[in-house]
Structure formats: C-alpha cells, structure tokens
Amino acid sequence: MVDESCIVEKFLELAPLSEEDTRLLAELEKDVQTYPAGHILKSAGQKNPPFFTLRSGWACSVRLLPDGQRQILHIFINSQIMGLSEVGADCSETELMALTDIEACPFTARDLHDVLSQSSRVSQLLMITMAREHSLLIERVMSIGKRRGAERLGHFLLEIRFRTKSRNNRIHIPFNQTVIADALGMSSVHVSRSFSELKKLGLLQTDGRTLFLPDVEALAEFSSFCPRYLEVGSADLMPADSIPRPDPQLIPGDDAP
Amino acid sequence: MVDESCIVEKFLELAPLSEEDTRLLAELEKDVQTYPAGHILKSAGQKNPPFFTLRSGWACSVRLLPDGQRQILHIFINSQIMGLSEVGADCSETELMALTDIEACPFTARDLHDVLSQSSRVSQLLMITMAREHSLLIERVMSIGKRRGAERLGHFLLEIRFRTKSRNNRIHIPFNQTVIADALGMSSVHVSRSFSELKKLGLLQTDGRTLFLPDVEALAEFSSFCPRYLEVGSADLMPADSIPRPDPQLIPGDDAP
DNA sequence: CGCCATCTTGAGGTCTATCAATTTCAGTGG
DNA sequence: CCACTGAAATTGATAGACCTCAAGATGGCG
Question: What pLDDT score does B241 carry?
Fold first, then answer.
C-alpha cells in the first residue's frame, strides 16, 4: 500500500470514492519505480504491454513510421495513466518514453482487469479518463489539420499552461524543440520560427526553457484555443440521484460527501 | 426490445456475453429512428448530449473552428456507438452528422450509466471499444501529420476497405470528396489530385463512387498502412482463465455493391 | 434538354520541409 | 580563466507540398 496515491487524488477531482475504491486504485500504484529521461517504458511490438501511472516528471507516447519518422501522440504529466489507449490490444503499437527522469508505477492488464471487475464506479471513472485523453487527441488533430505553425505552437503552449495549472502564466518546458516538432507534426526548424513569430507578436517571452505568456487571452484568440476540452465534467454519466455529486470546486485531500 | 441488436452482435465478436449482458445491451437499441442524409444528430454546444448506435448507413463526428472550417474526426459505419468519446462531458463539443440516410438508436447518458453499473463485463467491452476508436484517431494523426496527400488518401481508402470487410477490394464511398478532404485535413482540390495520382500509379480504379483497389499490398506499402490497428484483440484485459476467448477470425460480412 | 452539384484542371501564391551554415550556451578540461 | 566541445537553437536559401481562386468538364436527374 502506498502512503499517497496519485490516481486516487486525481480521481477524487472527478467524484468521491468509497474506501474500497480507494484501496483498489492504490493497489495499482504499489510498485513505484524510477526511470531516467529517455528511457523506453514500453516499446512498439511488445506483447501484453504494461500500463503505468505517472507520479512525477514528463513522458510521452510515440508512434514510429517505417521510414523512421516519429509522431508524438500524447504528452503525459503528473498523475496520468499511461497505456490506457491500448487496453484490449494484444500487442503494443505505440511506444512510451520518459521525457524527464520520472517516477512511475507499472501494472499489468490483469491488475487493471481486477480493478475493473470489482468496481463499476472505477470503471466509469476510467472511461471518463479515456474520453478526456481522447479529447486531447482531437485537439491535436485540429491543430495539425487546420492550424498553421505559430497557431499550433500557441495552442500547444496554452494546453501545457492549463494542464500544469500554472497560475502566473509561466511554464517550464523540460524538453527540446524537436520533441515539440514531433508532437505538432512539423519540423524543428519551423518550430523555432514559430517561437520567433509568437515573440514578435508579443504573445510570448522566453528565458531559456522557461516561457512566459504575457497575454493568455490574446494567445487563445490567436490559436483558437478553448480550454473547455480540458475541463473535468462528470455530468450525467453518474446522475445525481444515483451517486452523490461532488462540489464542482476542487476537492481537498479528505472526502466528505 | 429489438429483435436484432447491432451492438450485441458487434460485442460478440469481442467476447461471449451472458443472457443478462445481452439484454442490457439490447436495451440501448430499443428506440430505432431513421434520419436523412445531412441530418445533425447532435450539435456542438448541446447540453447532456445523447448517444446513438448506428444500425445502418454512414455518419461522422465533426468539429468546427471559429473561422468556419470543419474537421471530420471519425467516420462511423455499421454497429458503432456514436458519442462515446464524450462520456462524462457536460456539454458536447463535436457534432454528429448523418452522411447517408441512416437508422440509429438514440440513448441517454443515463441509459449508458445504468448498463455500466449493472455489468462490469460490458464496461470492459465499452472501454475496449473506446480504445479502438482511439487507435483510429491515432492513425488519423499519423496521416495528417506525416503522410502526403496521396498516401493519406490511400491509407483512408484502405481503412474503409478493411472496416467494411470488403473481400473483393471494391468499396463504395457514399459521400463526396469534400467530406474526404475535411476528414484528411486537406482541400477538396488536393483530394481530387490525389485520386488522380493513385490512378496514375495503378493503385486505384474508379467507377463513379465505386472504387477498386487492384493491388492492396502495393497500396498498403505506398501508404504505410498496417491493418493491425483495426484488429480485434481482447487480450489480457479479460484473461483466458477468467473468461473464455472468442475465435480470433474475423466474422464475414456480406458485401453487395 | 437544361440544371445543379460534383469533379477536374490550370495558374499563382503561401506555408512548410530540407539542407546547410552560424550562433548560443552549458559543460568540460587544460 | 579560457579554449574546446557538443547539443540545441537560430537563420538563410531553395524546393516541394499544398491552398486558393477560377474556369471548364462531367454526370445524375427533373
């Protein structure tokens, strides 16, 4: 049993959990490991691919093309579950890589299955988690398909800004522009130029890899960024009459329904 | 109660179902409606958005940008559940539109919730369903991000070819090239030119909207298409010792031009 | 037959990739 | 302290992919 479980905390933002659900979830995080930046947590082609919860650091999922090009599909930050998009697959298609030194807890499909079969509540929360990840990917499609370089980058930075819950509009990007390029489907050269463009427009200031967004609203307008897709809304999947609804505010450590 | 439930059939491809699970799933399809081509089943901004199962015809999910551009995210064919990617959202962000005349069964988040809370087995199958939809979107990202026009189109056609389970490599596309363009993040003019390119390369023959792929292997090579992401693999989410495994063979469907 | 949506084709311009050269900067070691 | 090093970022030049606009061709259908 882990003294502090990341996903329990995360899920408590969505809805209150029973003692039993808490215990089940914490079980997934019993094995805390550390991995260095650049470490491949899961490689493409791997049978019975593992899952991980990410306790600290940054990681990403990557898909490789035969010609050696790579596309970064998702960037994981604190408390996310990695590998969920491949539940039910015999064989892994995407790679998981640590972008920084990370702490993560590996678990198996079997572990996941055990949790799911024991709590329909947790199953629902996992579905919602998957749906949120899906909406991140949808925004990625929108960016790559419809936005030009600088807009893509602006959108990306705003997403990081909101997901890290930075309150001073200052974000730290712990990886290089090539990673951003592979995530946004553009060349690293063009990423650099897009940075310049945002700076020239007064929408961005940089100090090494620490970035400052002086006018988030203007940048959001410029990038057609709408934070709604990042919001937690547990709505009617759990109707009010069947399950107590949490206060829409963030819930502090202890739950009291 | 419906005499024949599409999703039950669909889910039986994944795993055997109990009587009770079958009944639960069929419940979702008790309300069979017909909608004309072009009908908006669900619009962006809608509160408590509904879900649908698609019994016949083609539909798609669409995301609109402030400047009026649209991106088609997913094309739905027979027996798919539409709206799953927005479970847990208070408000719909994507639109659902019928591409042809369709038969579909609307149901509410509440209906879905009832099913989920009564069967952890069905919950698991729904998660797998979501993961498969996710992998379709991943391939879309790969296409838009890394493949050039003709490759994108080839990949798209092969995906249709496999999803419709056409055995004679003949597919019928019941919508115009503008739809394809919006799905692949390119202009309709470029779609037309990409069609020409595939024809010139001998990878495609057309007769109106009926297409013939004379050399699927060559086209797959050309488009870096790998059908694995379309495969049904229920693997270890339901370990063999806990639940009997279905035959991995694809279930034949009837194709009539 | 004529209408309309759709598809095709051409021309010019924009965006982005690629290649290559240069600069920056943090480490490293003399 | 300063030169050396290598990764990363920037900048310039060129080429290719793709978009947009516009005109013309095609084909289904009343």
Answer: 40
